[in-house]
Amino acid sequence: MALKNYGVLKGRPIARRLGSGSSPHYQIHVVDEAGTNYRIAVNVKSQLAPSELMYHIKSHFTHPLTDIVAVLPGGFTALERRPDSGALDLIRGNLLQPGLMTPLPPELPGPDNDLNEKLDQIVQRAMADEDAIVYAFGERWGPEDRNADKYFGFMPGNGIHDIHMNQGNTGRFVQDDGVWQDGGLLFQFPRQQQWTAVFLKFQSQSWHTDDRTGHTLRAPDEEQPINPDPVVPQPTEDLPDGLVRIVAALVNSVQSPENESVTLLNPSDRTIALAGWQLADKQKAKMPLDGTLEAGAVRRVEVRAPMALSNKGGIITLLNADGLKVHGVSYTKAQASHPGWTIVF
Predict the structure, then answer these.
(1) Virtual CA dihedral for 148, 153, 159, 162, nearest 10 degrees?
(2) Rounded to two decimals, what is the model's pTM?
(3) Where are the domains of the chain?
(4) What are the pLDDT digits (tens) for 24-64?
């Protein structure tokens, strides 16, 4: 079924409350340019075991997404579920590598050691900066004309939730699965020319999902879903995240026609057969690979049609022979603005 009213809320954070109770959410009071009030409800604990959420905070976030959402009006904007609309997809948008996400409890004794405190540091900084803007991606609720907000008291009740990955779910939450509808938080600090990103995921969610439905993919010839835990000691053929990595790309060639390329590294201890593997661009145009990549070796792959690397920012994804994402990167228009220079990831 997917989320019913997916989009992004843009506004100024003016108050917050730490998450507590049996189903805690970190709450942020936001006001848009027109003075409309909203509440952002951010999960800090899962209803399913294990209860600790996986999180990743990127303090200096660079991605072509920021150019898209920066020009949106204040308030809530509905987003189409496609890669160039401003919608989030933690997997297909190459927003982060899965191994960067780590579990963290909502509250613990001591400073700066739980999810409430990690969020609070960023939100309080944004509240103290009159130019700072928060962008919350998820599902909107309201306006509830007859109800005041139960945390901040404004009328009418109005806000956004599901500020977490919204695919690869289990149990009753499978109905919420979809692609290009993930939640997340972006904080823009214009004075410092800095963006900070917060991404959240439940441990019960899978990192490998169907490109149409967002449902968990099942391992080849297996009835059980692929292990949803993205934190593994070393990648394997069954859990391939990072088995081969994209380490560089030439996206703005000085030749005409352009001679674009992607550089791959095999960091593993084995030779990898690339037959059946593919590289994909932002529009999911795919280019087949072949040959082998020796242990520790680097290979520069020339980009061929239909795949193309835009000079206006984009993403590059590496898929194995089973169609599972092995690695992915992104680059911005600014990074691609220097002809002849190779972008290093």
Answers:
(1) -110
(2) 0.89
(3) 6-201, 245-344
(4) 999 999 999 999 999 999 999 998 889 999 999 999 999 99
